[in-house]
Inverse folding.
């Protein structure tokens, strides 16, 4: 491994890994042309999704486009300070207009999801569109059958970092200004838990260093995301830890459950449960943490793990989910009690893996 200076020079000389995906001259002409472009992301968009969508939007504006941003469902309030976020269309709130934009699009960017079903209610409109679909994502096992260009790199911190790579691959590094850099940094920061996981690659820090050269204020961005919780959200966190946390030391596992009534009690808003599962994972000797949240028609499970325990595989095999090795999600159509019971019945099978020391 060379010095930071040598790594930086190598990065600038040879460019990001995304260049190996051979972005053709035809695609570059499309993007630099006057195509009608829609930028989408996944259901329940997080910081990486919103940061990526906004960064791509701001970049395409610089190329002379007026791209339309559409996400399936509302996103957390702690992301609503980002530039141009007020222009994001929420499919749940304006279905007819969004359907029309998707139907008339020439290019659809699919950011931070690896299969069309992750787009929720937008799946069918996107699937039925004749637009050229570009996938940019870092989740494992992309569904290659429904995209015309796939920019996928699982060993990358975030989709936001891949958006940075994509802009560079198009030869437009000079177009990354402070606003674009701030959106990309927000995506990287939130998808690595403030650089506590999924960030063991030197390139990520080189990208971040380049972002700081645009003049972004990393401390301010961190405050905007992590220090703007409502009183209700903080009381919900306290309730989860004092009343709802269950620790199963014999399986290196901890979990939290929240019913719809409990969410209502704390006046739940989108984003209020973000990161709570990580507190369960922070317990010494705990290698698997799960949060069960009751939704309208299902139980949503959020999985986090340490070390080599692959929650994306666990979630896929048992709860119709997926994600990253140490962070994934899934669903259960059973009741809360039945979902927890099913989960606990699975643990003996994985006991040896869960008790491994990191």
């Amino acid at each position: 491994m060379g010095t930071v200076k040598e790594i930086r020079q190598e990065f600038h000389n040879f460019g990001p890994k995304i260049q190996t995906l051979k972005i053709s001259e035809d695609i570059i002409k499309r993007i630099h042309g006057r195509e009608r472009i829609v930028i989408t992301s996944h259901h329940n968009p997080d910081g990486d999704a919103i940061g990526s969508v906004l960064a791509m939007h701001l970049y395409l504006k610089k190329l002379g486009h007026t791209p339309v941003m559409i996400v399936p469902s509302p996103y957390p309030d702690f992301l609503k300070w980002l530039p141009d976020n007020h222009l994001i269309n929420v499919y749940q709130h304006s279905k007819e207009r969004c359907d029309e934009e998707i139907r008339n699009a020439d290019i659809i960017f699919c950011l931070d999801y690896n299969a069309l079903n992750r787009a929720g209610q937008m799946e069918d409109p996107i699937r039925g569109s004749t637009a050229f679909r570009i996938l940019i994502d870092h989740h494992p096992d992309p569904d290659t059958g429904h995209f015309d260009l796939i920019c996928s790199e699982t060993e990358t911190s975030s989709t936001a970092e891949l958006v940075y790579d994509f802009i560079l691959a198009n030869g437009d590094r000079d177009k990354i200004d402070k606003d674009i850099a701030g959106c990309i940094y927000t995506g990287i920061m939130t998808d690595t838990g403030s650089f506590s996981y999924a960030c063991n690659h030197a390139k990520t820090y080189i990208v971040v260093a380049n972002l700081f050269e645009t003049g972004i204020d990393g401390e301010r961005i961190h405050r905007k995301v992590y220090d703007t919780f409502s009183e209700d959200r903080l009381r919900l966190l306290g309730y989860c830890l004092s009343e709802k946390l269950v620790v199963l030391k014999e399986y290196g596992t901890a979990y939290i459950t929240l019913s719809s009534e409990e969410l209502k009690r704390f006046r739940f808003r989108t984003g209020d449960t973000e990161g709570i599962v990580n507190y369960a994972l922070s317990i010494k000797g705990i290698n698997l943490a799960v949060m069960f949240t009751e939704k309208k028609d299902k139980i949503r499970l959020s999985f986090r793990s340490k070390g080599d325990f692959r929650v994306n595989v666990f979630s896929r095999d048992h709860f119709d989910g997926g994600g990253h090795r140490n962070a994934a999600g899934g669903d259960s159509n059973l009741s809360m009690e039945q979902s927890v019971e099913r989960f606990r019945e699975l643990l003996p099978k994985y006991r040896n893996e869960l008790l491994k020391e990191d």
Remarks:
- DSSP finds 15 helices and twelve strands in the chain.
- The longest helix spans residues 47-62.
- The chain has a mean pLDDT of 90.
- The radius of gyration is 20 Å.
